[in-house]
């Protein structure tokens, strides 16, 4: 992932990560779990093992290979970021862009021109790596339905979004740098947080439709059950949208997104076409859990802290590197727009080091939403079957530290075990579950 994409990822994170969960694989590929009566002894661990062991050896090997390869991609993405920064700083590209931008007198326009050049050239320099990671590799593992033309089109849309949003953000941050001087990092964190809130508001309405078509889900049993679940849990919306993710992937997904008047519930066509009512209900209950448990607000607070730490680290590291190579790079200080490539690679390195922290925080909130979803939907086997579907692209049974470091969602085993423990505790107390079994 390029520096550009990493920053926009952080700023859009509350729009994407805390409100969405994705699944793949067909619903009929999981075992049918039955218990003859509520009083029959039910073993959560045995039930979990039965689910995990139902994955074929071939499918498990492919899933493990794909997910473990992602560990290396975290490192290689950082290496690519460093290479891109070297091209800008050591091979004169940054100096050339700065020279072009100085042709205008207004400093904000100078910065805007440089930033737009930087975002476009970063995209082009990292494109071969992005092409491998996001197109070739995804097709090799059967996780993408996009043709090259369609994939490139979406990549160019992302570039356009990044240029617009990041240009605005960075111009404002550099304005704050000039005014606040040594305390610039405090204002940069505040501005980034405010920007994230704006993106949260406009994302569902203006950004998501750039990639998919959203239409109101037709009246019927599925819509009625989703809205009933929403009303029961205090989610203030009457809008349920379907979007055409099948053109991009086989995975199923859903989310509760937006703030204020833009709050909406969305689920993709794969979820509707490939999943049982119990699976749909369990997935939607999980998504609603993020809203009810205020995960959006908690993510904002979490990233306020991350922003402050990250920009403070950039502040300290920037001047240390400037003392070594500042003259060669023709960078006079932190307010010099020519230092943007350096600032971005430092931030990228910070995000790289923070991966276990951000993953662990995300994984914890996802686990909280899982518990909420189980209590709201009361569909433990539907949830377990949905969790099994992630095994097509997520290693189903990782080691303890492997899950802590690399997983931003609980592993399939962790999720299924949670569902089976919930089921065991409720078998003797729920006539509803007994009747379903």
- The SSE order reads HEHHHHHHEHEEEHHHHHHHHH
User: Average pLDDT across residues?
Assistant: 88
Strand order of the largest sheet: 1-4-5-3-2
Helix coverage percent of residues? 55-70%
Note poorly predicted spans.
1-39, 431-437
Chart the SSEs and their pairings.
Blueprint: H1 3-16, E1 20-23, H2 44-53, H3 57-90, H4 93-101, H5 107-140, H6 148-180, H7 184-207, E2 214-216, H8 221-232, E3 240-243, E4 252-257, E5 264-268, H9 269-274, H10 277-292, H11 295-329, H12 340-353, H13 355-377, H14 380-389, H15 400-406, H16 412-427, H17 431-436
Helix pairs in contact: 1-7, 1-11, 1-12, 2-16, 3-5, 3-12, 4-5, 5-6, 6-7, 7-11, 8-10, 10-13, 10-14, 11-12, 13-16, 14-16
Could you provide a short overview of the structure?
The protein is mainly alpha-helical and 437 residues long. It is built from 17 helices and five strands.
Verbal overview:
α5 runs antiparallel to α6 (148-180), α8 packs parallel to α10 (277-292) and α10 crosses α14 (380-389). The protein has a five-stranded mixed β-sheet, with helices on both faces. The chain is mainly α. It is 69% helix and 5% strand.
Write a concise keyword list for the protein shown above.
437 residues, mainly alpha, five-stranded mixed β-sheet, 5% strand, elongated, disordered C terminus
